[in-house]
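Changelog-adjacent note: as of this version, every example in the card shows the full chain rather than a window. The one below runs 281 residues end to end.
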Amino acid sequence: MNKGCILLGISLFLYSCKNTHQGSDTLYSRHLQRNVKLSVINTPIPADKSSLNLLVLNDGQDLDKLRVKQITDSLFKKGMIQPVVIVAVHAGDRMQEYGVAGRPDYMNRGSRAGYYDAFINDELYFYAKKQSGVRKFNSVVIAGCSLGGLSAFDIAFNHPDRINKVGVFSGSFWWRDKAVEDSTYSDELNRIMYAKIKASRKKPKLQYWFYAGGAEETSDRDKDSIIDVIDDTRDIITLLRQKNNYGPDDIVYREVKTGKHDYPYWSAVFPDFMVWAFPKQ
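Full-length structure tokens:
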């Protein structure tokens, strides 16, 4: 065994090795009132740690399905991405902890999203800095799939002072505070994240990467022959552009006609996301 790659205690990044390394840890959260399991992946640690980047991933329990370690290792060895530490947070009660902070949906799901936001911002971020031995990461990125993607987007939108970029794979932007069957339902008013952005006066200096697949579902609320996951994602992008003057590389959208709502399809575009998030300079 290469002793240079062993994790000692909770110090995750004490040593560097030639290959990308994966380990695990547990962090107690006072906000969530539980132990949070983490999977941690790091490329070889540079001598100058100021060039080290951080990626926070939701749904860390599914890390292997996304093939994060293999993809990261391959891209780093090819010189396509910068050094990165990936902290993948294993979900607890994801239907309550993921969502939009302070705005549960019409079934009261996402009721603990605010606590999860506080965990990421107040606890996980400082934990990652301490364990990495850096004063400041070169960049901080957060990403997730499906409901985890909505959560990542909301957290980034809330904390652009700390987070630089966000990746959303098939984000649950349909998340709403009123049932579609309600005669007073409105896409403009009742899609929670859309309404939050529209009402906000903030113009966060964030960069966004979105993915949606054309075969993810059959639902089509407005009967325009475009499935909801694509409509909802496009609507978010259009609204962001209306609210702020973004450059051509600040918002990236990848749409795959045959893409389904599943990890093999998200994994297939994960390299594209990583190269966008941490381009070799």
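Structural remarks: Residues 3-277 form a domain with the Rossmann fold fold (CATH 3.40.50.1820).
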